[in-house]
Amino acid sequence: MSGAGDKDLVQRARHFATQAHGRIDQRRKYSNQPYEVHLKSVAALVAEICDDEEMIAAAWLHDTVEDTPATLEDIEREFGAEVAALVDQLTDVSRAHDGNRAARKAIDRAHLAQASPRAKTVKLADLIDNARDICKHDSRFARVYLQEMAALLEVLQEGDARMLARARKTLEKQSAKLGLAVGAMSAEPERVDASVKLPLPNPRQQRFFEIFTQALVAEDIAEPLPSFDGIQPADLVASVARQCDYGVIGLRASGHVEGYALQEDLSGGLCLDHLRRFSHSQLLDRRASLTEVVQALTRHDYCFVRLLDQVVGVIGRAQMQLPPVRMWLFGIITSYEMSLTEMIRRLPLDVWRARLSSTRLEKAEQLRQTRQAMGQHVPLLDCLQLSDKLHIMAADAQLLQQFGFDSKGKAQRVAQDIESLRNNLAHAQDIVTHDWVQIARLARRIDMLANGMSMQD
To answer: 88, 78 in Cβ contact below 8 A?
Structure first.
C-alpha cells in the first residue's frame, strides 16, 4: 500500500520523531549530535529510491518505539496501521535476559527475516548510515558491527535491489578500510560478543538482586481482563466499557479470549470487527518479572498475563504507578547503588576522593563524624550520597568501562535520570509521564547487572 495520498505524512512523522527523541535528549553516540541527524539520513536514503511516504515516515520513526516513551499504539493513532506495522517490524524484539549480544542479535535477525520488503528497505538504509558512523569513529566495535551487518544482509535480500546493492557496497568499502574480508564473514556470527563483563556481585549483592528482580511478578500488579463475546454489538460494549472505565477489553470467540480491543476502537459493527490479535511481545507468563513487564510496555500500551494458556490479566502503564512497583523501583535503584559502591571500593582511596569537590567530601565527613558519635563506625565511602557516587563513576574511565558507558556525557545523563526518578518516587510524582525512559533503561541495566554483564549500547 502506498502512502502517496497523504502529503503531510512525512512532515508529521519528522516532527513526531524529532520531538520524541529530543525530549529525552537522545544523541548520536560518537558525535553527540541530536539523534534526528541519524533519522534524517535514513529517511533521505529511502526517499532517494522511492516516493512511498509511509516508508519514508517509518524511516523517521524507526527508533521511536525502541528508544522513547512512544508505543506502537501511539504510532498507529498518529500515522495509521500501515506505518505502525512497519515500525513494529523495525523494532528489536530481544530482551536483556535473552543472553549475550550474539544471542540477542540472532533473535532480532530472525524477527527482521519475517519483515515486509518495505521494512527491509528501511532497515538497509539504517545499516548504511550506522556503518558509516561507527566505522568512522570506533574501529574496534566496527569489526563487530560489520559482521552483524553481513549476517543481516542475508535476511534483507527482499528489500529494494538498489538499496541492497548500496548496503553491500558500504559493507565492502568499510571492511576494506579495516582490513576485513567480507567473504570470510559468517552469516551466523554466534561468537561475536561485544559485552563488557562486570565483576560478579558478592553473595549479599546477588541475594539483593534476586529479591528485587524476582519477588514481584506480573500477576502482583495485573488487573483482571474484562472480556466480552466477539459477536456482541460494538456500540453496546463500548457503552459498558465507558461506564466501567475499561480502557481495554478481551474478545471471546468459541469461549476463549482470542484478542483484545481498545475502548476507542469500538464503533459500529460487531466487536470481532475490531479484534486486535495478541502479539508475542505483549503476552507474559503470570510469573514474569517486572523487568519483562517494563520491556513489554515500552512497545505497547498494554501487555497481557496468561494462566494455563488463557489470557486472564492486563497491565498498562497506569499499573506502574502502584505502590509495589514504586517499592520495586526504589529497590533496583538501591541495587544499582550497591553495585556502584562495590566498584568504587576497589579503587584506591585517594583516586575516588580526587573525583569529588571539597564541599562534597566535607558533607560526607560530617555525616561520618555524626555516626561515629552515635557509635556507628562506617567508612567514608558509605557516607557519600548517590549523586556523589554517580559523579565518581562519570569521572573515572575504569568505572565507565565496567558499567558499559562509552562516554562521560552518557554516564552523566544516566546519573541525572536515576536522580530524577528517585526524587519523583520520593515525592509521589507521576513517574510514568516524567520518567518512563529512565525506568526502562534502569530495568534493563539492573537485569544486566544481575547477570554480571553490561552490553555495549
So the answer is: no
Give residue limits of the domains in the chain.
9-184, 195-222+286-457
E strand or H helix at 337, and its extent? Answer: helix 323-345
Which helix or strand (DSSP H or E) is residue 303 part of? Answer: strand 302-307
Instruction: Please report, for residues 224, 284, 453, the alpha-carbon distance to residue 296 in angstroms, rounded to integers and kept in the order given.
Output: 18, 8, 22
| CATH class entry, domain 9-184 | mainly alpha
H and E: helices and strands count for the chain: 20, 10
From the centroid of its chain, how far is CA 307? 26
Task: Provide the grid cell at 428.
Answer: 509521589
Per-residue pLDDT tens digits for 35-83:
999 999 999 999 999 999 999 999 999 999 999 999 999 999 999 999 9
66 is catalytic: yes
The residue type of 277 is R
160 is known as an active-site residue: no
d(CA 54, CA 70): 18
pLDDT in tens, 135-147: 999 898 999 999 9
The catalytic residue among 6, 66, 108, 419 is 66
User: 201 near 452, Cβ under 8 Å?
Assistant: yes
List the catalytic residue out of 52, 53, 54, 67: 67
On whether the pTM is more than 0.90, the answer is no
